[in-house]
Structures are given as C-alpha cells and as structure tokens.
C-alpha cells in the first residue's frame, strides 16, 4: 500500500513590512517690514524664537528682517503662521508674552489660524478692549466664548481652572460698562470654603466676605486702572457681593457675573437666575468637577441649571477642557492628571 505523503508544515503568514511614512522636510523665508518690532518679536536673547522652535520642532535663523525656518513640512507651515500672527499682534499694539505665544502655537494646530482669529471669514477680529489692555482669544473655545459674551443673554461657562472663564467675562463686562452699554457691573460668588474651615474672620461684613471675592477684584484691577475701580466701587457702578446679597433684587441695565457657581445650591441658583432684568447679561462660571458644598455634585445648582436650561432660547453653554487652559502649559497637564480628559 502506498504511503501518504507527509503533510507540509504550516507556515505563518508574515505580511511584508509596511513602508514608513516619509517625513517631508521644507524650508521657508519670511520677512517683516517694521524693524522696531523685531526686538519684541524675537524676545530677549531670542527667547520667543526658541519657544517656537522647541514646541514645533523646527530650526529658525534670524537674518536682519528675515527669518529662515527649516523642519518637517507641517511644522514649518505652523511656525510661519505663528510668527506672522505674533508680528500682527505687535503691530496692533497688543501684548506678547510666553503665554500668548503658547496659545498661538496651540491654536495653530486648528484647521486654520485665521479661522480662529476672525469672527466670520474676512470679518473683524475677536477682541475685548479695556482701559488697560486689548484681550484676544488664546484658544478656539475662548473665541467661541467671546462671541457668546456679545450675543447671548445668559451664558454658562463650564470647565477647569485656568481656561479664562471668569477673566474674559469680567473683561467683557468692563468693556460694556466703559462704553455705556450697561450701567452697572455686579460680580458675585458663593461664600463657600474650599476644603478648609477659616473660622472667625475679623472686621465688618466687607472684610469678612472679601477673601472669598478676591479673584474678582484681581480680574477687575487687570482691566481697569486701580483709581477707576475704587471710584466705581464707591459710586456703586461696580458691586462685588456674595450671592446671598442678591435676594429680592431685580438686576436691570447690568452685566452680572456669578463665579464658582458649582458651589451654589439649586435654590440659590434659581434665585440668582430670576434676578435677570431688562438690558442685562448674565454669565455663570464654574467647574462642575470642583464642588465644595456639603453633599457634592448632587446638590450643585450649576449642574441642575445647565440640565434644565441648556438649549433654551437666549442661553449659551460653553464647555472648556484641559486643552483650553491658558496658564502655564503644566496646569493643563495637572488638570488632566487629576480629572482625566473631559467627557
């Protein structure tokens, strides 16, 4: 009887190695007309250029009015856009610091940098002008927020610390107070201690509540000269008070900001929202993940109000994430480490 041939050993299929994607390299030269701006553009000891180089992985050489950029094609294009935007900001008299440059670098990863900086295609740039500075968006979500501040009656600004929720709202409020769009600026916060008991605080009522309201004062002084802040506080044009002081009032012709709103109860939030009056705008800022009131998230008036009112005509909701943090870049990494990416 003939023997059956031995079966062939099974050989695993090994796919051919996939070709590595070739990184296309490029180089480009850009030129700037105004020599007087080059010092501010390059930074002390070329620190601004080094920041762009390190973040985008390119090489930049300065030759008089010209910059030569080399590196991966995509990175070279982003570096060009960032440097041109830095120059444009300086030409408009705006400030340029490490934080502003970091924000421009982050925004350059969006589809187009111009699309972020313009309210509409070929429209006016988004900015808030105050007595002390001109403020422009430092992230795509900040640009959306700044549009909402000029359009919606009541805005919920949600997200972690360092995203500019309160600061931009105060800046917009100051701008409207200065140009006469509103007659009063009212800033409020719940007087809730953040994880510690302060005990007895000396002084009158103002002295007792001022520690809770300090961040609002800081934002005000950054947008207006100190003497103007003091004069408007004395005249009542600017009012800073705990949320408990809002009961029984109708806030007409006013720009009203509630900060740390996640620490309000449902009853407090309903009371605050129903203070809304004619020719007014309200901004409610808070981080739903940072609730300090007893009972935690279940009692937060902010989450309850957003759930009930989001999508209602006249309300805007802006959600920031750790990617929108505009303080030092490490703050965004801290937020992500503690909380994880926002859902």
UniProtKB/TrEMBL annotation:
Keywords recorded for this protein, A-Z: ATP-binding, Cytoplasm, Nucleotide-binding
Coiled coil feature spans: none
Superkingdom of source: Bacteria
Gene Ontology MF terms in the entry: ATP binding
Major localisation: cytoplasm
Protein name: PhoH-like protein
Protein family membership: Belongs to the PhoH family.
Transmembrane segments: none
Presence of the UniProt keyword rRNA processing in the record: no
Compartments reported by the entry: Cytoplasm
GO cellular component terms, semicolon-separated: cytosol
Gene3D superfamilies from the UniProt entry: P-loop containing nucleotide triphosphate hydrolases (3.40.50.300)
InterPro entries, sorted: P-loop_NTPase (IPR027417), PhoH (IPR003714), PhoH2-like (IPR051451)
UniProt domain PhoH-like protein: residue ranges: 135-339
Disordered: region residues: 1-21
């Amino acid at each position: 009887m003939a023997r059956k041939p031995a079966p062939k050993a099974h050989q695993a299929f090994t796919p051919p190695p996939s070709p590595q994607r070739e990184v296309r390299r490029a180089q480009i030269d850009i030129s700037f007309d105004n020599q007087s701006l080059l010092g501010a553009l390059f930074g002390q000891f070329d620190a601004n250029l080094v920041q762009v180089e390190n973040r985008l992985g390119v090489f930049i050489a300065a030759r008089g009015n010209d910059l030569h950029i080399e590196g991966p094609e995509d990175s070279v294009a982003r570096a060009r856009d960032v440097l041109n935007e830095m120059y444009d900001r300086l030409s408009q008299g705006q400030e340029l610091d490490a934080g502003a440059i970091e924000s421009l670098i982050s925004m350059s990863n969006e589809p187009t940098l111009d699309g972020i900086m313009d309210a509409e295609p070929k429209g006016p740039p988004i900015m808030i002008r105050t007595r002390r500075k001109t403020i422009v968006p430092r992230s795509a979500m900040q640009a959306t927020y700044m549009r909402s501040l000029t359009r919606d009656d009541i805005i919920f600004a949600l997200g972690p610390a360092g995203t500019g929720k309160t600061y931009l709202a105060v800046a917009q409020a100051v701008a409207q107070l200065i140009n006469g769009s509103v007659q009063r600026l009212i800033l409020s916060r719940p007087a809730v201690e953040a994880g510690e008991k302060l005990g007895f605080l000396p002084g009158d009522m103002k002295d007792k509540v001022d520690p809770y309201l300090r961040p609002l004062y800081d934002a005000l002084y950054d947008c207006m000269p100190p003497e103007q802040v003091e004069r408007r506080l004395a005249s009542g044009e600017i009012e800073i008070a705990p949320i408990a002081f809002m009961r029984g009032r109708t806030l007409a012709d006013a720009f009203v900001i509630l900060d740390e709103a996640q620490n309000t109860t449902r009853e407090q939030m309903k009371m605050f929202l129903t203070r809304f009056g004619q020719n007014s705008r309200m901004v409610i800022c808070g981080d739903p993940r940072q609730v300090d009131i007893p009972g935690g998230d279940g009692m937060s008036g902010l989450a309850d109000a957003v759930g009930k009112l989001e999508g209602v005509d006249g309300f805007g909701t802006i959600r920031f994430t750790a990617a929108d943090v505009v303080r030092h870049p490490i703050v965004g990494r801290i937020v992500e480490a503690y909380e994880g990416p926002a859902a």
